[in-house]
Write a structure and sequence with these properties.
Elements: H1 2-12, E1 29-38, E2 41-49, E3 64-69, E4 76-77, E5 100-104, E6 107-114, E7 118-124, E8 132-133, E9 140-141, E10 156-159, E11 165-169, E12 175-179, E13 191-192, E14 195-196, E15 209-216, E16 219-225, E17 232-237, E18 244-251, E19 262-266, E20 269-276, E21 288-294
Parallel strand pairs: 14-18
Antiparallel strand pairs: 1-2, 2-3, 3-4, 5-6, 6-7, 7-8, 7-9, 10-11, 11-12, 12-13, 15-16, 16-17, 17-18, 19-20, 20-21
The structure holds beta-L-arabinofuranose.
Beta-L-arabinofuranose is lined by residues 29-30, 49, 59, 97-98, 153-154, 209-210, 258, 260.
Length: 312
Amino acid sequence: MKYMVLALISATLPAFAQVGHPISQRFNADPSPHYFTSQTGGQFYLYATDDASNSGKYWDSTSWRLYTSKDMKSWRDAGIPLDVTIFKWARKDAKAWAPEAAYRNGKYYFYAPIGGDKIGVAISDRPDSGFIDARKDALVDKARDKNAGAEPIDPAVFVDKDGQAYMYFGTRTPKVVRLAADMINLAGEILDVQITGLPASNAKKQYGEAPFLHERNGIYYFSFSTGWPGQIIYATGPSPLGPFAYRGVILDYLRISTNHQAIIEHDGKSYLFYHDNLLPGGGDHRRSIAIAPLEYETDGSIRQINLSATSR
Ligand code: FUB
């Protein structure tokens, strides 16, 4: 009987069946998940900050890590898609932080925060390797670009239905800028993202880092981490440029000093990627990416994820 029940439960479990569990035994963080139909056939590509190669005392890794999956259940460590040395203008000790990727017109683009003050962009014919610097200088440079903010990191790219691409980035003040159709140039001013209605009573519930934009049924969802530690909260608006009104919490504080989310939809289901302290020896600089189902109420609001109700 026990086995029959178990079989029934596993038959009804969602595809990712790993809620609260790391996608790999290797430390990783800052998920940037995508479904790409590349030379290798359609599969998920998950780009990450490589916490396994940092000092354990700081986020000082200098290469990014890629994981691939056909089903979001088992993930293959696909190695290093690129490292900071392809950006010749980067300082030798530049840190490789939260990455982003995008596909357009047969090319793959990799957006790389370098050293906390610049964002580079690399290009390749494949999603897993072959990336070269697309510009020979930074796409965003704190010293060069007006309103780039105190720390231009955490790029997140969103391409709207009309083909216009936007890049969100920044700590403490969220930034957004239109990208040119070639995906490697800015096409306008860097703007502050306007968020109204953040709960004033909770000083912690402000924008910290990890901006992310997705769209569903004509509603634009701007999600982010509130800081250090970070709750993942969200606001909604009528366009990729907002203005956005605070709606609620997606994921509460975890046992870790940062969080960083991404949301993808596949086959009609939504998933939240985030990171947590999940492996032995883990901690603030040794993080682990995990996946949870994301559900919406009928009014379009996001149901707060309760990890303890699953398998945490
Ligand atoms: O991985 C280094 C930094 O930690 C990222 O840029 C932030 O989003 C935070 O997760």
